[in-house]
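To fix ideas, we reproduce below a protein record of this kind.
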Amino acid sequence: MTLGIMQPYFFPYIGYWQLIKAVDEFILFDDVQYIRHGWINRNRILKPGEGWTYITVPLKKHSRDDLIKDIKVSDISKIKDVLLNPLIVYKKIAPFYTETFNLLENIIKKINSDGLVEVNLIIIKELCGYLNINTKITVSSNYNFDYSRVGGAGEWALEISKQKKAEYYINPISGKELFDKEKFNANNINILFLKPKEIVYNQKRKVFEPWLSIIDVIMFNGKEETAMLLDYYDITED
């Protein structure tokens, strides 16, 4: 069994979806401390003119020690405005604007919980269905994993992989330095790294803005081409 583990991001970039497709089970890692200014309640899209801007889901007040699974959206009724209103920038330039807008509107209608993890879980599952990704999506807090042996940042994935009896664990190559390959090998787990290839498409701008939200990718490439781009990566041991 091949395992992937990431925190539950909000409409993440295409590399996140490539990782989901590359594994048999993808675990949303939510029983760890929530860190501000990450990707769990925000992502990036184009802004009018040039450059990019954030789309951000406002959250209820919480402690700095709260776990991701305990973070709440301040008002789920406002998610529609937060997400859809800024997309007007795409209306005259993106060939798949209407298709993408309708897709996102339908996803938002299915959100009925103020839990941030639940919001992102719905988004991830719905977009997986749209892009024909059949990977099993689960949530780490539902497993009651034992983290008592975790001694460093790279060992969360090791402990989860051991308890899931995974044969392979794949991580984005950007986090490679966190992991001790020998510890994985000692537990008969092969650790591999996913490296997205350079993806460039016509954003109708002078300067291409890379690695924006998957929303941007679908806006300009549509369902079929985006699904093809999901295979545009390499898996490496080093």
